[in-house]
């Protein structure tokens, strides 16, 4: 132990001195390399699994593409063999998958049946509206949900808590399309004395001009789909935050802080919430990945020109290359967000760092 | 000397909770008087569940008493946020499990400096800045050189070091008294002695008082000047540590002591250790008369009947002991038992009043 070293020479003061008032500062060290390597490796394995699934689901199961292409056209067996060779279909399955994986990693997702353009290009075009919608909805529902979750937990058992939890659970269990249609009927079509306040769909009204007018038009289009999406994902934030704060609330360090004279509000702000946020942040990131695919319904209902609408259209054709590309993008988003959450965790929690 | 004012006292203190299981009220603390004088270490001893933690929490103002008062230097504690804040600067807490009582995301420096930040620059005393004060507190708690610990996180320290950080966090405010709830129970046996030595050193050098809560009479023997034995929400025997540990009178204290091998009580009584039987005490259903009577070996062995006190044990309430220094016992058998003198009327000198620190036995 260190009790015996009473008369050592003074030790030089550490380089980064804790400053007054910097109670919530974090000491950020480099992430341990092995941890990062393990997480990135895990994500890579998941991605390969996704590609394997896509390969079998879209390349092997639908049958012989050469027969599909030549359907109705008289072809000789030699011609068929030639075509198969051209497509690489005469190679063993493993080699075919290898070619496929290399192609995908180069961003070549094939040509859409329906649009006759590259799938990657189509996805690129529709990516931003989705990110825009999902991003706005996530920020709003997280800001609201975390706040409400914290209040609920701190006064757990109170009427406020029960109301909050009840509302969250109700929103959680309402079907998305039902809620979306309800919003359209009430706020877009107009019902009784209520006029139609918002547009029923799309992202903008063609022909609008002027910066302010375009912006306002844009926001009016955003309101209903965003509100629907917020309602769908809000509950997760409330309930996760509430549960992890409740977990934290029995902790002795809160008693210690209180016994030192810290006000209840500060005990919550400085001690309980930062620690309870850790698990919530992870859930938040994992959710963003899921919400991207979860926005399919909302985008379809509100004709929002994002990946969700694209997916819906591809389904009705069915446009197999496009579906395949979207499948990979949606799964990739979940994997990426999981990876980010894993990498963020040690930055936030010193215990994981060493 | 008798005019000394206790740093901290419980005066007829009562705390009750709605019962955790089923209906009723749990009288966790049921009329307790307890004084801690300056420079004195008092051990509060009793089985788990007897209300020690509740009493400690109430003394710290973390629980509001249902009745009675907490007195600080003779003044009732005010339960306003300002009153409590001032009070909490002077009365500090050390909890059992140092891993839990430190915020895992705060460095040692932040943990120790927190008290100073709460109470503002007046808490610095003669020190030029926060950093010097934190370093001093860490050094006093035995973490030297203090600067080396500043940026460490709790998970990087040993259990003993963590408890020292907790103690430093308390010392930094220069309190008059520490309330320590089982301060070494979750530490390795090898570091327990060091932490106890630290508390004794603080008392001897700085006159720091302490109320040490423990279920372990052996620990009380090593550290306390005075012992209060608690059973089911009430103090049943209190007095100087030598008296309680060498000549215990309450059957409950005797039972607790008889299981300590070094107590000598088991051989002297010739009956071996007294194992307490009967139901674990339930604060929602406190027995009438003497609250210990369902488990009391004196009653069970028929000696109470022989002494003609059994009816009293079962039905007649015992006086509430007062919190001062003289030895007192709440038992009908004491005084009526031919063998034992009635210590409630025997004056005993108060411990340690200005005298040289008591010698330690190991
Ligand atoms: N917050 C509470 N709510 C209900 N009952 C409690 C609460 N705190 C303590 N008790 C009860 O009070 C009694 C005394 O508990 P405690 O003070 O923790 O005892 P000890 O510290 O001696 O083990 C126990 O029976 C316990 O169940
Ligand atoms: S009063 Fe009676 S029951 Fe209570 S401890 Fe004394 S002898 Fe036992
Ligand atoms: Mg306890």
From TrEMBL, chain A:
Residues 1-23 are annotated as: Disordered. Keywords: Cell membrane, Membrane, Transmembrane, Transmembrane helix, Transport. The chain crosses the membrane at residues 35-58, 127-146, 167-198, 218-239, 276-302, 322-345. CDD domains: TM_PBP2. The keyword Cell membrane applies. One of its GO terms (cellular component) is plasma membrane. Coiled coil: none annotated. Pfam families: BPD_transp_1 (PF00528), BPD_transp_1_N (PF19300). It is a multi-pass membrane protein. It is found in: Cell membrane. The keyword Transmembrane applies. InterPro entries: BPD_transp_1_N, MetI-like, MetI-like_sf. One of its GO terms (biological process) is transmembrane transport. Residues 127-345 form the ABC transmembrane type-1 domain. Belongs to the binding-protein-dependent transport system permease family. This is ABC transporter permease. It comes from Planosporangium mesophilum. The lineage of its organism: Bacteria, Bacillati, Actinomycetota, Actinomycetes, Micromonosporales.
Automatic annotation (TrEMBL), chain B:
Residues 344-356 have a biased composition (Low complexity). Pfam families: ABC_tran (PF00005), oligo_HPY (PF08352). Residues 337-362 are annotated as: Disordered. CDD domains: ABC_NikE_OppD_transporters (cd03257). GO terms for molecular function: ATP binding; ATP hydrolysis activity. Keywords: ATP-binding, Nucleotide-binding, Transport. Transmembrane segments: none annotated. One of its GO terms (biological process) is transmembrane transport. Residues 8-257 form the ABC transporter domain. Belongs to the ABC transporter superfamily. This is Peptide ABC transporter ATP-binding protein. The lineage of its organism: Bacteria, Bacillati, Actinomycetota, Actinomycetes, Micromonosporales.
């Amino acid at each position: 132990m260190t009790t015996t070293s009473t008369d050592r020479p003074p030790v030089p003061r550490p380089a980064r001195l804790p400053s007054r008032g910097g109670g919530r500062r974090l000491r950020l060290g480099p992430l341990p390399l092995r941890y990062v390597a393990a997480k990135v490796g895990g994500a890579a394995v998941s991605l390969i699994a996704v590609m394997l699934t896509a390969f079998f689901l879209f390349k092997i199961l639908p049958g012989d593409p050469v027969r599909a292409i030549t359907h109705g056209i008289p072809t000789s067996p030699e011609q068929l063999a030639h075509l198969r060779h051209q497509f690489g279909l005469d190679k063993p399955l493993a080699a075919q998958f290898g070619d496929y994986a290399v192609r995908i990693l180069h961003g070549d997702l094939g040509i859409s049946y329906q649009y006759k353009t590259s799938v990657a290009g189509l996805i690129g075009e529709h990516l931003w509206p989705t990110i825009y919608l999902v991003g706005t909805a996530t920020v709003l529902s997280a800001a609201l949900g975390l706040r409400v979750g914290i209040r609920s937990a701190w006064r757990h058992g109170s009427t406020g808590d029960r109301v909050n939890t009840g509302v969250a659970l109700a929103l959680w269990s309402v079907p998305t399309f039902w809620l979306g249609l309800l919003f359209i009927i009430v706020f877009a079509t107009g019902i009784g004395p209520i006029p139609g306040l918002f547009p029923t769909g799309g992202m903008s009204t063609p022909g609008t001009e002027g910066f302010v007018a375009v912006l306002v038009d844009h926001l009016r289009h955003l309101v209903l789909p965003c509100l629907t999406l917020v309602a769908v994902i809000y509950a997760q934030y409330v309930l996760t935050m509430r549960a992890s704060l409740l977990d934290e609330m029995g902790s002795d360090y809160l008693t210690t802080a209180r016994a030192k004279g810290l006000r209840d509000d500060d005990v919550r702000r400085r001690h309980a919430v930062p620690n309870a946020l850790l698990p919530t942040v992870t859930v938040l990131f994992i959710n963003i990945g899921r919400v991207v695919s979860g926005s399919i319904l909302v985008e379809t209902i509100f004709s929002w020109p994002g990946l969700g609408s694209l997916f819906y259209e591809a389904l009705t054709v069915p446009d197999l290359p496009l579906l395949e590309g979207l499948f990979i993008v949606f799964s990739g988003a979940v994997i990426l967000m999981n990876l980010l959450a894993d990498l963020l965790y040690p930055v936030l929690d010193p215990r994981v760092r060493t | 000397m008798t005019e000394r004012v206790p740093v901290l006292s419980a005066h007829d203190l009562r705390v009750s909770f709605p019962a955790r299981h089923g209906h009723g009220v749990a009288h966790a603390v049921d009329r307790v008087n307890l004084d801690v004088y300056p420079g004195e270490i008092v051990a509060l001893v009793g089985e788990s569940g007897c209300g020690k933690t509740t009493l400690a929490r109430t003394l710290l103002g973390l629980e509001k008493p249902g009745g009675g008062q907490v007195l600080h230097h003779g003044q009732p504690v005010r339960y306003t946020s300002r009153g409590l804040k001032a009070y909490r600067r002077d009365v500090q807490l050390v909890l059992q499990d140092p891993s839990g009582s430190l915020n895992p995301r705060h460095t040692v420096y932040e943990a120790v400096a927190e008290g100073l930040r709460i109470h503002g620059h007046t808490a610095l005393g003669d020190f030029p800045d926060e950093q010097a004060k934190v370093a001093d507190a860490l050094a006093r708690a035995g973490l030297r050189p203090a600067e080396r610990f500043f940026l460490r996180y709790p998970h990087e320290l040993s259990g003993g070091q963590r408890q020292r950080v907790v103690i430093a966090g308390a010392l930094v405010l220069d309190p008059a008294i520490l309330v320590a709830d089982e301060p070494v129970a979750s530490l390795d046996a090898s570091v327990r002695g060091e932490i106890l030595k630290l508390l004794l050193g603080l008392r001897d050098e700085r006159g720091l008082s302490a109320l040490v809560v423990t279920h372990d009479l052996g620990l009380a023997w090593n550290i306390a000047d005075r012992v209060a034995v608690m059973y089911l929400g009430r103090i049943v025997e209190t007095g100087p540590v030598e008296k309680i540990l060498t000549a215990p009178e309450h059957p409950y204290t005797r039972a607790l002591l008889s299981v300590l091998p070094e107590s000598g009580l088991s051989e002297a009584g010739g009956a071996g250790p007294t194992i307490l039987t009967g139901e674990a005490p339930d604060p929602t259903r406190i027995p009438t008369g003497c609250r210990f009577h369902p488990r009391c070996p004196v009653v069970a062995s028929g000696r109470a009947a022989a002494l003609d006190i059994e009816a009293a044990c079962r039905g007649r309430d015992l006086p509430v002991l007062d919190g001062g220094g003289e030895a007192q016992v709440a038992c009908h058998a004491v005084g009526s038992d031919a063998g034992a003198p009635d210590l409630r009327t025997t004056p005993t000198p108060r411990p340690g009043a200005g005298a040289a620190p008591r010698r330690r036995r190991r």
